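Q: Start with the shorter request: fold the first protein.
A: Done. Sequence, then structure:
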Amino acid sequence: MFTGIVAAVGKINSVTPLEGGPDAGVRLDVHAGGLPLGDVALGDSIALNGACMTVVAKTADSFTVDVSRESLNCTAGLDAPGEVNLEKALTLNERLGGHLVSGHVDGIGHVHRFEQVGESWLLMVDAPASLARYLAYKGSVVVNGVSLTVNKVGDVDGGVCRFSINLIPHTIEVTTLRHLKVGARVNLEIDLIARYVERMLSLDKPA
C-alpha cells in the first residue's frame, strides 16, 4: 500500500529487454534521486509513477525492477529513460498524508489541458469511460503516483470522462507533473474505497 505522497523524483537510467521474445518485459535501472534506500530490502515494493514494482537489486543510490509486458501495456512512462515519481510502500507508523493507494494502475488518461492559473496550475485529464463511475467531485484520484483531489468532473463526447485538478506550487516543484504537456499519457488509479463500494452495489441483493 502507498499514500500517493511522492517521496522523491528519480530517473530511469536504462531499459533492458528481458529474455523471452516480444512478449517479455523489461528491466529498469532507476536512480533513486533523494529517496533513501537504506531500509529497502530485495523484494520490497516501490511505486514508479504510481505503479507498484518489486526491487530485485539495489546499490546505495539506485535500484532495479522487472516490469512485465502486461504492466507495460497497462501503464505509461515505464518503457523509456526519464524522470519518475517514487514512493516506498507505506508502513504502519507513518502519516496517511494522501489516501490509500494500491499501486495498481486502473487506466491511462490523456492530458487535455495544463496551464498556470494564478499561483497554481490547472490540470484537466481525459479518463477512460470505464473509470467514470469512480470519479467524483472532491473525491481522490492518483495521477502518475500523486494523490490529488478532483475539483470538477463530467462526461464529454466520445465516451470520455474529463476531470479537473488544481495543483499547488509545491506539487509542481516536487513531482514530475511539472513536465506534463497536452496529449501526454498519465497513469490513473481510482479511489480504493470507491472500487469496493461499486463491487458491493453490483452484487445481487439476497432474496
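Q: Next, the second protein, separately.
A: Sequence, then structure:
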Amino acid sequence: MLSAALNRVLEITQTGMGHVQLAESGRLRMVRHSGLAREFTSFFAFVDQQTTSRAQAAEQRRQVTVRDVATEDVFDEGSRGVILRAGNRGCHSVPLVNRAGVAIGMVSSHHERPLPGFSPAQLRALETSGVMVGRWLSWHRRTVVLDALAHLHTAATAQR
C-alpha cells in the first residue's frame, strides 16, 4: 500500500523522486523512497524537528509546497544542503491523515526544478490520496497488527 501511495503521488506531481514517512514516537521515519540519493535517505531517515516542510505539513495537517528549496526559509541549512546536493529544487508534502484528522504519515515528492505550483485538480487528488492512505494505515494498525500481536501472545502463552 505504501509503495502504491508513493507511486500515486509521484504520478500526480510528475516526478520520479519521493518518499513515504510514518509517524512514530513524535517523529517521522522514512519507510519507502524512490529516486533519492543515499545521502538524502540517510539524513532524512528520521525527522523530529520542524526544520523541514514534511515535519511542518505533518504538524499542520495540510499540504506544503516548497517552490524553491534554495530560497525558501522552511529548511535549516543542513537540511537545505542535503536536499540541494541530491538535485532537488522543489518539493511537495502530503499528510496521511486518519479519520480524526491526525497526521500519521507523509508522502513527499521532490523535483529537479523549482515548482510553479500545482493545479486545483492535482491538489484535490493529492489530498484525497492522503486521506485514503491515512485511513487505510489507521485501519491496518487497529486490526491486522493487533490481531497478529494477539495471535503471537496466545501462541507464546500456550507453550508454557
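Q: Describe the second briefly.
A: The chain has a mean pLDDT of 89. The chain has one domain: 2-158.
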